[in-house]
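At this stage, I put together one protein's amino acid sequence and its C-alpha cells, which the following lines show:
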Amino acid sequence: MSFQAYLDAIETKSGKTPQQLLDEAHAKGFGLTTKAGVVAEWLRDDYGVGRGHAMAFCHVLKNGPMISDKHVGSTGAHRDTTTELRLDGVASRALPR
C-alpha cells in the first residue's frame, strides 16, 4: 500500500481529509516532538485508525507532504506516483491544483 493509499484510507475511516486531521493534530499540540504512539492512540481512539495507517500519518505530521522517491515509479506494492502527497482529500483530486 502506498503512502497516498494509507492517507486515503484514513480519510475514508475518519471522514476527514488528511489536512483536516493535521489541523486537528496541531490544535491538540501534536508536532515534531510528539511520540508516534501518542498520535496513533489518538487516531485509534477517535477514529478507529490502525497502527500502520497511523504511522503513515505520523510521517506526514513530522515531515510534511513530501516523501522519499525510493518507491516512486517502482513496481512494488508500496509505490507512489509522486513524491508529493495530496492532503486535500480524495474528492479534490478531480480539481486542478
About this structure: The radius of gyration is 13 Å. The longest helix spans residues 51-63.
